[in-house]
Amino acid sequence: MALDKNQIAKRIAQEVKDRYFVNLGIGIPTLVANYVRHDIEVEFQSENGVLGMGPFPFEGEEDADIINAGKQTITTLPGASFFDSAFSFGMIRAQKVDLTILGAMEVSENGDIANWKIPGKMVKGMGGAMDLVASAENIIVAMMHVNKAGESKILKKCTLPLTGVGCVKKVVTELAVMEVTPKGFKLLERAPGVSVEEIIKATEAELIIEGDIPEMNID
């Protein structure tokens, strides 16, 4: 059974450790804040100038003035702070963020990421993604394994304009958890009910497979 977007976020939330500062990108990554363990202290940062984001608000409790970088309404936790973009990117560039979670259109086997532009389509620009991938030492990508046409987005080499080179450490999709190693993608976990063969078929890049591959624990 392939995971849905919330289940991908739930699996990535397991990578968040106590006292981490975490930047959440647009898309699936924003959902991670909903699933972090309650017994750890985590500070979620949004590049538009928020430190201390909480889960998404319940319907009817939204504050239109409190948003993340994707212009979604958010909640803040006690002690949260607000600041300008210059301060926010100073924090990012100074490598004060322990974990960066981004969405992507493509990831290559050497850790390149393409997540900002599809040629021929109008885009507003790269935004803060370039700073994040240039500065972060621990990047996890949350993405779908294949596109709407069923074509793999886990590639030997990216075909879209790159955001960053050799920067991704781990990828979590609806099918699998993969680590980027010097030898390529290493398959770590598979979605419940999904076979290794199905993952291989959906992956254009070569996969390193060692021993039995366990199912993800997303409970």
Description:
Keywords: Transferase. InterPro entries: 3-oxoacid_CoA-transf_B (IPR012791), CoA_trans_fam_I (IPR004165), CoA_transf_AS (IPR004164), NagB/RpiA_transferase-like (IPR037171). There is one protein chain. A hairpin with a 3-residue loop joins strand 2 and strand 3. The chain is 14% helix and 24% strand. The radius of gyration is 17 Å and the shape is globular. The model has no long low-confidence stretch (mean pLDDT 93). It contains four helices and 13 strands. The protein starts with a helix and ends in an 11-residue tail after the last strand. The protein has a single domain, classed as Glutaconate Coenzyme A-transferase, CATH 3.40.1080. By secondary structure, it is α/β, with parallel strands linked by helices. Strands 4-3-2-1-5-8-10-11-12-13 form a ten-stranded mixed beta sheet, with helices on both faces. It has a three-stranded mixed beta sheet with strand order 7-6-9, with no helix packed on it.
